[in-house]
Write a structure and sequence with these properties.
The complex is a heterotrimer of chains A (about 525), B (about 140) and C (about 120).
Chain A: H1 28-42, H2 50-75, E1 78-81, E2 92-95, H3 97-120, H4 123-128, H5 130-146, H6 150-168, H7 174-205, H8 210-220, H9 226-241, H10 249-253, H11 259-284, H12 286-312, H13 317-338, H14 341-372, H15 383-386, H16 388-402, H17 410-422, H18 426-452, H19 481-499, H20 502-516, H21 519-526
Helix pairs in contact in A: 1-2, 1-5, 2-3, 2-5, 3-5, 3-11, 3-14, 3-19, 3-20, 5-6, 5-11, 6-7, 6-11, 7-9, 8-21, 9-11, 9-12, 11-13, 11-14, 12-13, 12-18, 13-14, 13-17, 13-18, 14-16, 14-17, 14-19, 14-20, 16-18, 16-19, 17-18
Chain B: H1 4-27, H2 35-53, H3 55-62, H4 66-79, H5 83-86, E1 96-101, E2 104-109, H6 110-138
Antiparallel strand pairs in B: 1-2
Helix pairs in contact in B: 1-2, 2-3, 2-6, 4-6
Chain C: H1 2-20, H2 25-46, H3 71-102
Helix pairs in contact in C: 1-2, 2-3
Classes of the chains: A mainly alpha (about 525), B mainly alpha (about 140), C mainly alpha (about 120).
């Protein structure tokens, strides 16, 4: 292949048009989190100002993500390539409605966690690096949601995993090291599977840019090893999302770290797995997804039911919350199994609901431990007397997570059931409802045992042994701002999404449209469908 | 590993390796090399110095904590992305500043700034791992 | 050539899976090390193996003058090596800590986070 050296058409390979300033919104969250993380690492010893750095940086990220979402809703899918190389040569960042919306939700969750941690993470743990890890975790999440390059997605997954394994052993308890070993190894195997599938995909289509992959895979017309590659991707991301047969790392580890760490993990990490499932398996490989449809649907059913049954079988509220996370993941995978627009929109809506609701539930477990002194349902009781407000908030959150009206869990489940019935997957629709019923029983027991009965087991109102001094002690508790503010934000969002779901529904539908029919996505990257 | 010969040679050897690491960092734009590999060479220099003279001596010689060094590097790398905003170009597009310096052509560029950031991140992060492993050996 | 290396990838991967199924943490970690390497080899093979020169562009030219090796898989493998290497280092330290704290390297006996014979949930309301 002899090529003459200096006759090169630069415009064929590089961006020559000036870039709009607003497009920079795609990278500002990443630059902010990286720079903020760097500053937080440098000032690790100054434990008093660490929370302020984190809260400041993450607030800026929230603002920037609001701007990005507004830009995407106005102008459609936005693409930007690094270094001025045109796609598929440069690493592209592409934000559609789903990516931008998830990025915004993730930054709100991280902001709440940063505020909550200011009151619960001790100075020694700050010195160890809680806040840098939190900011870099957000960086990894945002990068994963906004990238348009599949290898870059892998790199963001590793950024996430590095920050997560750093956070999970924060505190150095025995249980944490035990949970950390299982969490770290199984998640690393999952990301290695992801890498393996990416290597095979690159060998098949010769490109890593997602838009280019869409085009190349559609040209394959279902030939070749693309089915196997899709199956490996599904396994890898299902493992990251904690879907049923590969979910065991989650209940083994999520209850061990500090509650705010669990809250961030439960709120963000499994959702990144679900996001990757929707993005890669649904958008990049529609035909193999159809081929895998029945298996995905089985996995979704098993995940929903196993999660709900697991939640029923727990006394520890932290572990119960872990199983509730798994059950929710099943609902989102149901959207992937059905894959019509309503159901995918439902899955996106469910993910957004789950971002807020699961984070709030883990933080709530921390609050309950603070006022009740235990995580076990047998040792809790009578908390309504101590704090009616906490009781009310937790009732709202628990009803929301079980999908009962009028809170945010209802609408995505309605959309999922509608989509399932539309596409004739009645078994899936039934399982969504059955898992809802089982979860309702579980959360009912949670709330009644922790709040409604008069006192813990062994007291008059508790059930076992009536004792003479069994009157529940009523001492009103006052919660600091670091607890009330994030709980208020998250609970407010859960109520708001339940009462006024139209806006989120519209965004989710737009996001689902670009997943089901990625023409707009490809056009945003290449200008035209090549 | 604490022979007199090694302890005498190690400071000179690590100094030489540091110079070489900076050379590799700077030549990386036209020839093989760059921030990553330069950083690894610098880490080996610190590691040799640490094996010979102890972890405390390395920490003293680095002045700032290795993790802080990594933070500084990350910050510099982020800074190198920004100049292209001013020129209406996509992020990370390289900007060159070529001028005459004492009779020879000097080329400064944002990729160089980025590479210096990478260099510091690698030096900071891997030295801190290496030092904590060496410290663990003692007890 | 691809066939030979693909077989090697398969061999390494089955060895790593065998090791990862072991109960001993050390063997699991060795399995992870091999898994990372086999995937790197897989990516490298996925970019096609050719007998050609390294991908450098000579001075004064915009394009390579002759056919060069594919540089992209090399960049990917470099990234993956760095990541898997640093994770392996972390896992070794974590495994060692686990052995010290929990007094065992048998994963079946690591039941601190999920103790055996945990209390049953309350029946009824």
């Amino acid at each position: 292949m002899a090529v003459s050296s200096n006759t090169v058409d630069i415009a064929a390979a590089m961006v020559t048009q000036p870039v709009q300033g607003a497009d920079w919104l795609l990278v500002t969250p990443l630059l902010l989190t990286m720079a903020g993380g760097a500053v937080a690492i440098m000032l690790r010893k100054k434990t008093a100002i660490q929370p302020w750095i984190a809260i400041g940086v993450i607030s800026l990220v929230v603002l920037s993500n609001i701007g990005l979402l507004a830009h995407v809703l106005d102008h459609g899918v936005v693409t930007m390539v690094m270094g001025g190389w045109l796609p598929p040569f440069g690493i592209a960042f592409t934000a559609d409605a789903m990516g931008a919306f998830f990025a915004l939700s993730a930054s709100i969750v991280a902001l709440c966690a940063a505020i909550y941690a200011a009151g619960s993470i001790e100075a020694s743990e700050r010195r160890y690096g809680f806040y840098p890890f939190l900011i870099l975790l957000l960086c990894g999440c945002t990068g994963a949601f906004l990238t348009g390059d599949i290898f870059n997605l892998y790199v963001w997954f590793e950024v996430l995993l590095i920050s997560a394994v750093g956070m999970i052993v924060l505190g150095n308890d025995k249980a944490q090291i035990d949970g950390g070993v299982k969490y770290a190894i199984l998640n690393f195997v999952a990301t290695t599977l992801f890498l393996m599938a990416t290597g095979l995909l690159y060998g098949l289509v010769g490109t890593l840019n997602m838009a280019d992959i869409i085009v190349k895979v559609s040209q394959l017309e279902g030939q070749g090893p693309i089915y196997g590659i899709a199956a490996i991707y599904f396994l890898a991301f299902a493992m990251k999302a904690a879907a049923f047969p590969v979910n065991f790392w989650l209940p083994a580890s999520y209850h061990t770290p500090r509650m705010v760490v669990s809250a961030v993990f439960g709120g963000l990490l499994t959702k990144v797995g679900v996001y990757a499932l929707l993005r890669v398996v649904l958008m990049l490989m529609p035909e193999p997804r159809e081929w895998l449809g029945d298996i995905i649907s089985l996995v979704a059913i098993a995940t929903m039911i196993a999660g709900a049954l697991g939640a029923l079988a727990q006394t520890d509220i932290r572990r119960m919350t872990g199983y509730i996370v798994i059950s929710g993941v099943g609902s989102m995978i149901a959207g992937l199994a059905i894959a019509n627009q309503v159901a995918v929109a439902g899955a996106i809506f469910y993910a957004v609901h789950s971002f807020f609701c699961i984070t709030a539930l883990y933080l709530l477990a921390g609050v309950i431990n603070r006022i009740g002194g235990s995580f076990s349902l047998r040792e809790l009781g009578g908390l309504y007397n101590k704090s009616p407000l906490v009781a009310a908030v937790s009732l709202i959150l628990l009803l929301a997570v079980a999908g009962l009206p009028p809170f945010s869990g209802l609408w995505p489940k309605v959309m999922l059931v509608e989509g399932a019935l539309e596409s004739g997957r009645s078994l899936l629709a039934a399982s969504i409802l059955i898992s809802g019923i089982l979860l309702t029983i579980a959360i009912g027991r949670y709330w009644i045992y922790a709040f409604w009965r008069g006192g813990p087991e062994g007291t008059v109102d508790g059930t076992l042994v009536p004792q003479s001094d069994g009157t529940a002690t009523v001492a009103s508790v006052s919660l600091p701002m670091t607890v009330t503010v994030p709980m208020a934000i998250l609970t407010g969002l859960v109520i708001y999404l339940g009462l006024f779901p139209e806006g989120v529904m519209a965004i989710s539908t737009q996001g689902a449209a670009s997943l089901v029919d990625p023409t707009a996505y490809v056009q945003s990257v290449f200008g035209v469908w090549p | 590993m604490n022979t007199v010969i090694f302890r005498t040679i190690a400071p000179y050897l690590s100094a030489l390796m540091m110079v070489f690491s900076i050379f590799v960092l700077l030549r990386g734009h036209n020839e093989p090399g760059g921030g990553f590999i330069g950083g690894l060479i610098a880490v080996s220099a610190f590691a040799i110095y640490g094996i010979a003279c102890g972890v405390a001596a390395v920490r003293r010689s680095m002045v700032v904590h290795p993790m802080s060094l990594a933070g500084i590097g990350l910050f510099i790398a982020v800074l190198s992305v920004l100049p292209s905003y001013l020129f209406g170009q996509p992020p990370m597009t390289s900007q060159w500043l070529i001028f005459d310096f004492l009779g020879s052509e000097l080329k400064l560029s944002t990729p160089l700034v980025f590479d210096i950031g990478v260099y510091l991140v690698v030096v900071g992060a891997i030295t801190s791992i290496a030092l904590s492993l060496e410290e663990r050996d003692v007890d | 050539m691809e066939f030979v290396i693909a077989s090697l990838v398969g061999l390494l991967m089955s060895a790593s899976i065998y090791l990862m199924l072991s109960k001993k943490l050390v063997r699991v970690l060795m399995g992870i090390a091999i898994l990372g390497n086999s995937v790197n080899l897989l990516i490298f093979t996925g970019g096609r193996i050719t007998r050609s020169v390294p991908p450098f562009i000579p001075e004064g030219s915009y394009l390579p003058l002759e056919q060069t090796a594919n540089p992209l898989p090399q960049a990917l493998v470099l990234t993956a090596i760095v990541i898997s290497f640093s994770f392996l280092a972390y896992f070794l330290v974590l495994g060692y800590r686990a052995y010290q704290e929990l007094g065992t390297d048998d994963v079946l006996e690591m039941r601190v986070a999920e103790p055996k014979g945990d209390e049953k949930p309350p029946l009824g309301y």
